[in-house]
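If you are new to this repository, start here. Below is one unmodified record pulled from the training split, so you can see the exact layout before writing a loader.
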Amino acid sequence: MGDRLRAFDCLHYILFCGFYLFAASSLAELQYPHAFKFKSLSPPNIDVIGAVKQIIQGPQGFMWFAGESGLARYDGYKLKIFFADDQDPNSISDTAINSIYVDSKQRFWVGTFRGVDRYDSDLEQFIHYPLGDQEVFVTSVVERASGEIWVSSFGGVYWFDEASNRFRRFSDGVITAEGQLSRRFYSMREDLKQRLWLGSERGVSFFDTDSGEHQYYHQAQAF
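And here is the target side for that same chain:
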């Protein structure tokens, strides 16, 4: 008799737990009807591009992945990898990709270790935009409210001159608290006042490109 009671109690407990989990799940769906459900995707050979630095959706709806060892495009079925090829002048400038960006004109920009590229989807080739006479590691590409394209890099800040179809340098860098010139910028964003904020290895800076105002905040300084 005791064994039957214990079995009955155990069954009752299992049924209660099952009902509770079902009710909790149903309640969660009612409270969060638009909750995201994630599905793991592992396109073949995606690992060859190394650590993924950025992910965006391109003009044609494809997903693009900027990796430390290459650029990948995924159309939902197949993966295409873009590598630098010294024998092909239309290939991407460098295999190390740190930033990708689609502007309001649906132009696809790629920040590489050797400068800025723009991808031509019709020809499936890259147009190169060097930043000066030396190879410069581009860290971010942004479009400002004015529609201008700006980039931050390990060699300063540049903006794209549409008239001449080339990038021009805006700033060599910022003077740090130690009085040294810091040219390495790791990130850049524009705020609602259309000021450019830049993250460097030693602090944060902002530029007002219209008034010329500039401020540098080093690590030990409060905003």
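Two things worth knowing about this chain: The two ends are 75 Å apart (CA to CA). The longest strand covers residues 52-57.
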